[in-house]
Amino acid sequence: MAFSYNKNEKLKSKKLIDQLFNNGRSVSVYPLRLVYMPTVFENNILAKTGVSVSKKLVKNAVDRNRIKRLLREAYRLNKSHFFNSLTTQHAFMILYIGKEKPTLNQIETSMALLFEKFSNKLPKK
User: Fold this and answer.
1) What's the pLDDT tens digit per position in 27-80?
2) pTM value?
3) What DSSP designation does 40 have?
4) Closest Cα to residue 26, out of 89, 124, 95?
């Protein structure tokens, strides 16, 4: 996998996002929560991912946007490590559930633990 996070890999479908929150499963590693669901995409992409930061927890829009940029960057840099064992297509939503402003290193370590926890929940072959 390349170090990119292009338009095809972004979760944008309102129907799929609603379905993800209604029927998906989740794992948490503070300050992140991952909601995931196996699904099928028409193009040959393993995962579609979205990020979200709650307006209720982080009031300032500038801070919310910065956290979302950090989440996307940590995902982009490390997705090849996260998905090397993934064989089925999944939809992901990464939620920031903390109140403080994180650094990129904090986000990266939390995200690594989060996807490790996710891979442990996957059925073994």
Assistant:
1) 999 999 999 999 998 888 888 999 999 999 999 999 999 999 999 999 998 888
2) 0.90
3) -
4) 95
Tokens of 55: 């307006």
- Its CATH architecture, for the domain 25-116, is 2-Layer Sandwich (3.30)
Helical H segments across 24-103, by residue range: 61-82
User: Degrees (nearest 5) of the Cα angle 94, 16, 30?
Assistant: 15
Checking if the pLDDT of 1 tops 60, the result is: no
Residues found in the chain: 125
- Helix residue ranges per DSSP H, 4-125: 14-23, 61-82, 104-121
Burial of 7 (0-12, 13-18, 19+ CB in 10 A): exposed
> How far is the C-alpha of 40 from the C-alpha of 99, rounded, in Å?
34
**Torsion over CA: 38, 16, 109, 5 (sign):** positive
Report the alpha-carbon distance of residue 115 to residue 36 in Å, rounded.
11
